[in-house]
Amino acid sequence: MRVIAGLCRGKRLKSVKGFSTRPTADRVKEAVFNVLGTRLSGAKVLDLFGGTGSMGIEALSRGATLAVFVEKNQKAVQVIRENLLGCKMEDKSKLYPIDCFKALKILSETNIKFNLIYLDPPYKSLIIDDILQGIVNLNLLEERATVIAETARDADLIVEYNNLKKAREDRYGDTKITYYQVEGSFNDGSL
């Protein structure tokens, strides 16, 4: 696992030993960031279920100004810290070693809003709809925000959460990437 592009291009990232996390495959990560293109410049990014921190670190490497990581597995929390240190990105990041729902509530109380949210819960979990609805209800999205959900290939996600609408789906082996955008964000069909 490595950083694909930007300031930390080629930097190897540590992973969590065992099967408690499932890092996003490099080819999936590369495809996601190719779709996002230049939208990361100056962005505030939320990496929910951070695992190794790979997605948030990639965003920072490509020009995001802030990455917030949420991960409750303590082994993964340590790996995220080590990867941030190794990439010299700790000053552009915040790490919440708690449950995602608690973190979303805390973040909403700080009035932070994100340009990009990436969520990658365990494939067998049934909480993704609750998370997406929570993101909208807690007003965590900037006006032109994108939310990306990584799920199992056969996961069936809702098309719309208030003003957050499904814009695109891509499949890579047993992984599905679903892009949501705030309604009216990108009327040019760029996703």
Q: What does this 3D model show about the protein?
A:
This protein has 191 residues and is an alpha/beta fold. It has a single domain, classed as 3-Layer(aba) Sandwich (Rossmann fold). It is 27% helix and 27% strand. The longest helix has 13 residues. It starts with 25 loop residues before the first helix and ends in a 9-residue tail after the last strand. The mean pLDDT is 90.
What's a concise summary of this model?
This protein has 191 residues and is of the alpha/beta class.
Based on the model shown, name its key terms.
single chain, 191 residues, Rossmann fold, 8-stranded mixed sheet
Radius of gyration, taken over Cα atoms and rounded to an integer in Å:
15 Å
Overall 3D shape: globular
Strand segment count = 8
Counting helices, strands and paired strands, the structural category is alpha/beta
How far the N terminus sits from the C terminus, by CA atoms, comes to: 26 Å
CATH superfamily: Vaccinia Virus protein VP39
- The top-level CATH class is Alpha Beta
Counted up, domains total 1
Biggest sheet features: 8 strands, mixed
Number of helices: 5
Mean pLDDT over the full residue set: 90
Cross-sheet strand order for the largest sheet: 3-2-1-4-5-8-7-6
The H-and-E topology, N to C, reads as: HEHEHEHEHEEEE
CATH architecture: 3-Layer(aba) Sandwich
CATH topological fold name: Rossmann fold
Strand content: 25-35%
Helix content: 25-40%
List the uncertain runs.
Answer: none
